[in-house]
Amino acid sequence: MSLEFLLSSGIGAVTATSIYLILRGRTWPVVLGLSLLGYAVNLFIFAMGRLWRDAAPILSAAGRLADPVPQALVLTAIVIGFATTGFVIELALRTRHETGSDHVDGHEPAPTPGPSETRDGA
Amino acid sequence: MMGETLSDFFSTHLPIFPVLLPLLTAIALLLIGDSGGEASHGGPLLRWRRLVSLTSATLGAALAWALLLQADYGPLTVYALGGWQAPFGIVLVVDRLSALMLALTWTIAVPVLCYATAGWDTHGRYFHALFHFQLMGLSGAFVTGDLFNLFVFFEVLLISSYVLLLHGQGRQRFKAGLHYVILNLVASALFLIGLALIYGITGTLNMADLALRIAQLGPQEAVLLKAGAMLLLVVFGLKAAIVPLYLWLPGTYAAASAPVAALFAVMTKVGVYSIIRVHAVMLGDGASHAALAAAPWLLPIALLTTVLSVLGALAARSLARLVAYLTVASVGVILAGVGLFTPAGLSAALYYTVHSTLVIAALFLLVELVASQRGDAEDRLQPASPVAQPVLLGLMTLLGAASVAGLPPLPGFLGKVMILQSALGTPAQNWVWAVVLSAGFFTLIGLARAGSILFWGVLPPEPHTRRAGGGSSRRMLSATLGLLALSLALAVYASPLKRYTDAAAAQLANRAAYADAVLGPLGGAAADTTRPYRGGAGEVILPAPKNPP
User: Does A6 touch chain B (CB under 8 A)?
Assistant: First the structure.
């Protein structure tokens, strides 16, 4: 099995897991899903610089070199992803505190579908 | 001598100032500190915060207008950050479109900040600092010439918008905030995937360089590039709120506090701006295989957005939701102009962008003025006790509503006429005319219904629910009136503005001049990046160094 196959199937598996988690109704799985999606995206950016062996990481006089730009992009994406994950965890906790439910809609789903008093006009 | 050096310094570094100024102001505001709450009301620190914030916003508006005048004069202003030549470094590029959006943003920011200093900035902590971070993100997104840098500024404006949305707190805001944050985080991930795909195919992220490289792609590579571009359309579409990605907007904007919602009126336009920049300009070259990847989608989506949002406006049960749906409708009309993919359509869309952003920002402020005078009914569309200033607020609502619906002689009418005119003779002519005209009509019905309930459907006043003071504060009223007056002034100054947007559209169509100005000495089409990504079995050869001319 080639390195390319391993990496791409790995990214695919992580992305699929994250999509499943993001579609859950509770905030904690959603936050986990968002972090996993972040990991998959970071690997994907890295892979878009192609996979290289025995290549210099930065420009040298001549010869083979790995593309430094995706590595820089990944670093930026990791930093931003870290900050936003921290924020969304805090927001989820605060919403739980504020609404008394950790459901993403801010209220426990009714056992049978029907109009609920917390639902607004739309 | 000294003055000359200073003015040289000023004109060289002008493009970076609208980004640096709000950043430094926000840091200063963080250092001044904000213990929050009513405890500091009227305290010396609050006065300082307001002074710093308002002064800086006024200065920023002056800078944005200076850039507008400079852009109007003609040539592109290119600013290489750190002196690194494009496409290797990040460049800021100010053309007429960027300058127009900058001026619009800062012109709205000043009255909105004035409005906020009448009380909203004491309902939570660090309002002013977050407001300036948001301005920094908006300005940066408008001036950057690099696609990844656009992502970074998107994140800056989004993170501050997350917190601004929650400003004032409360259950509704947290509920809307959680949805908004999660949606935007997923969109950010899609943004990165799209960017990575584009980089993987072309090996560059500089917009000017990308436009050149996309034109050279073969049919197979073009397919992957199109996939990346369409992912970006999804992301920008979520920001701009187009079908089917607009469902988050009415609840979110209606939950936000008035000054924040007014500023958010600019944020949807960032999505529109990015669609213009990437899909109408960067991918607009007719010769390439990936040309106009969004063309079959954009116009139908725009028209459908207009129809559905106007239906939403008719069904809205509160004034804030009604205005939020009008925001979506305005985006639909603008993108209908952009979706024609002609310079005339683009020019008309830009005119309508300026008008609709101003008038919707004014309407969001007005919603709160009306709501605060109606006792417990707030902005819900149901009979309630009469407002304290029926004539003034009624007239303001009438003006704003007539302009949004597009009645002559108000600027909304001019904007719609321009879009209709630019659609003449295109295959989509009938659709655009039918949708834009009937949308205007139904908007009018929705607003007339809301207005008659708010101002005529009054119950006898109940003394115990009346708030003290009755009328709104003079500062809030004058800020709202200022925004309304600005939007009405667009009817008076329609001719110079239309000339400007015509020139902006022509400048966007001239891709060769853009590439020349940005890539300059590296020779435009022949600029090398570190890796051509073409041919061979993975062996990478450094490009031969070129002698600079």
Answer: no
